[in-house]
Specification:
CATH class of the largest domain: Mainly Alpha
Number of strands: 0
Strand content: under 5%
Largest sheet: none
Structural class: mainly alpha
Number of helices: 12
CATH architecture of the largest domain: Orthogonal Bundle
Shape: elongated
Mean pLDDT: 82
CATH topology of the largest domain: MetI-like fold
Number of domains: 2
Radius of gyration: 24 Å
Low-confidence stretches: none
Distance between the termini: 16 Å
Order of helices and strands: HHHHHHHHHHHH
């Protein structure tokens, strides 16, 4: 995790240094004089040696100092922290939907063994994986936000003031993020459980008198969740990446919308800080998934 994070930090730093063009010229425009350009280069630290720029940025990041936004003139760390109050609940809501719906759905489909049900699920899951999340978001907005007016659009409510209203405001964005992931995870759960139910240890357990539900949920499902755990790590990363688009569609003041705004204003310190934040979150999630293997399957040794 530490090595990967360090590589990500180096890549993010270098990417913003090898992009063609002068950041000061991009920010100020062609009408700026040389004195203004030189002053901004000095403010950005672009006039210093590359290694000095990297060390200064890395040390600042370790202290939680990612610089100051050029557009908003605020600390980047503070801006990201404020927007996390929207992005974190949205991501957690989406993940809860994925886990709470896909695993029971996959188990049910594995146990039903009905050809019409299997075909229907196959078609729907293919549709769920193929349709982009932003298109699903637009459809949900048109149906539940505009036509039926069941949920507010573009509104956020403070969690401490009204948790129920906050969940209601994030319902459509969370569903739009979760639907494609539900289709993928449910297929993996179904396939993994069907494979485990055909193993010898399941037949042995049933032959010794263990009930079928206990065999399924205590043994087969636990083994079937091993490959699903890997998929969930990728799904969580996709949800974080997809939140950039979904927050823009729903005009939610989260990290994703802030990133789009920063790109529009060529706010390089803010873009760089947001890219680092998202990358570290994804690396941490993958590390957490690796640790989850030990919880699901005690045979996995962490010291090997």
């Amino acid at each position: 995790m530490v090595i990967t994070t360090l590589l990500v930090v180096v890549m993010i730093f270098l990417i913003f240094r090898v992009i063609p063009g002068d950041p000061a010229l991009i920010i100020l425009g062609t009408e700026a004089d040389e004195a203004q350009l030189q002053a901004l280069r000095s403010r950005l630290g672009a006039d210093r040696p590359l290694i000095d720029q990297f060390i200064a940025w890395l040390l600042g990041a370790l202290r939680g100092d990612l610089g100051v936004s050029l557009r908003f003139n605020q600390p980047v760390t503070k801006m990201i922290a404020d927007r996390l109050m929207v992005s974190v609940p949205l991501a957690l809501f989406s993940v809860a939907l994925v886990i709470g719906v896909s695993i029971p759905l996959g188990v049910s489909l594995a146990l039903i063994r009905s050809r019409p049900v299997e075909l229907t699920f196959s078609y729907l899951s293919q549709l769920g994986m193929a349709v982009p999340s932003f298109w699903v978001a637009l459809l949900l907005m048109m149906l539940f936000g505009v036509a039926l007016r069941w949920v507010p659009l573009g509104e956020t409510v403070d969690w401490q003031r009204n948790p129920a209203a906050s969940l209601r405001a994030l319902a459509l964005p969370a569903i739009a993020l979760a639907l494609p992931a539900i289709a993928v995870v449910a297929r993996y759960v179904r396939g993994g459980l069907l494979d485990q139910l055909g193993q010898n240890y399941v037949r042995t357990a049933l032959g010794k008198g263990l009930s079928f539900p206990r065999t399924v949920y205590r043994h087969a499902l636990r083994n079937a969740l091993m490959p699903v755990t890997t998929v969930l790590g990728v799904i969580f990363a996709d949800i974080i990446a997809g939140a950039v688009i979904i927050e823009t569609v729903f005009a939610l003041p989260g990290v994703g919308l802030l990133l789009v705004t920063a790109v529009g204003y060529r706010d390089f310190p803010l873009i760089q800080g947001l890219a680092l934040h998202i990358a570290v979150v994804v690396v941490t999630l993958n590390f957490t998934v690796d640790l989850a293997y030990r919880v699901i399957d005690p045979r996995v040794r962490l010291d090997r």
